[in-house]
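Narrative progress, year one. The postdoctoral researcher (J.K.) led the effort to move from monomer predictions toward full complexes, under supervision of the PI. The following entry was the first complex the group processed end to end, covering 528 residues in total.
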Amino acid sequence: MEAVIIGVGLHPFGRFGGKSAMDMAADAVRAALADAGVSWPQVRAGFVGSLEVYNPDAVIGRLGLTGVPLRGVFNGCATAGTALSMAARAIETGEHDLTIAIGMDKHPRGAFAADPSVAGLPSWYGQTGLFLTTHFFGMKINRYMHDHGITHQTLAMVAAKNFRNASANENAWRRTPLSVADILASPVLNYPLRQFMYCGPDEGAGAVVLCRADQAHKYAGRPVRVRACTLRSRRIGAFELQSPSLPAGEHAPSPTVDASREAYEIAGIGPQDVAVAQLQDTDAGSEIIHMAENGLCKDGEQERLIADGETGIGGSLPVNTDGGLIGNGEPIGASGLRQIHELVRQLRGTAGARQVPGEPAVGYAHLYGAPGVSAVTILST
Amino acid sequence: MTGSRQIPVAEGLFTWPSDEPQLIGAQCASCRLVGFPAGPACQRCGGTEATERLLPGRGTLWTFTTQDFRPPSPPYDGADTAATFQPYALGYVELSGEVMVEARLTESDPARLSIGQPMRLAIVPYSVSPDGTEIMTFAFAPVIGEA
């Protein structure tokens, strides 16, 4: 049985003082339930993701203690892909008729800090300043620019486009448009990436309500079909984060490529059918690389596509229409549900000032993060 | 104060002191994959039997970036502060087509680094303990005049 999304809810992303991640999640769930026309006791199972919240399933204490099974999930930056995938799978297998995916986080400021042992790495890797995720993105895009002729100007144009899209999004964090010149004038953090080319950790929550396709008529929300949800980990030879060494001469594609190909195959949908895409833009370089890794263009074509504005809302391949991670920040557990929230609004035709013209029928969502994991979701009308 | 005393950040990482230091890697006894550092299992096949393999001290720069802000501490334990932090570069150096190793680079200016340039291993101080002992780690230095 196919799963469809009947409700989406989002707590805005940003900084919210003393408000807890749990309270943000409860708000997002209430919004998703209202969107679907569903009451909390009708939910038969849930999947809840967070990095910072030890027991995100405790959100049930703010929604009503119904005894519903709520499972905690975590896959780094791909966490929300897993929550949505499991919520859809529970319906596809016939186990449940109505499920929910929930994500929340409230991160401290600054780059993520942890002991390398959490990733199975030796202490010296952290002591000597190598256990960071940010520098990986600098190294990957530096090589990509060398191989495929992408320019610094194009990096800045991607960031400027995402800030521009965020300025039209009432839920976004970074709502002040920045010019290409502003972005190129910001300090380098990891060459060639500059401060305003990176997303930052922040706070927020999201929720998505799903049901059996044949029961969608009973609920209020206009259904959006879940065509594929995939998740892949890295293979040997892929250029991936947190790798003290990598084999030389044995190159494998990123897990993004594997997850993407599998998703297109399951959905029976090709990259040429994608009308709007939300791609993991941890930084501007990542968005550029992920366009090609998700099959949406060839390596190097980004230079022309971005110069021509094709990834803008009026272009042939709109990417990160709500501002993406650069415009919204990344509360890890919720980030992927923000993507789904945006795609559902785009496919329903209710995205307001950000609406992609021409009644988009296929939406594509992509997540990527440590230690080399990627999730892809394809939705359609 | 001993001043001149130097110790490696960890044992078993590199041969040192030496005029020609080498990184100490491992080769899987089953699938022959070479990795660094010697770890509990092979990344390709999961094999747990391996033999020590000293890696070539020279290679070429596959990619690089810079670290322009002080990494979160802990785990970083440089003896600097946010105010005194000196940016450094880092990259992957391909060693004889066998393995690519992630390392700090001794040249921190990206304008003086280029993909494909020859590099050689150097053992350098990256921190200093309160008694003046220098903490040494491995890094790669551009080989001048061999491009």
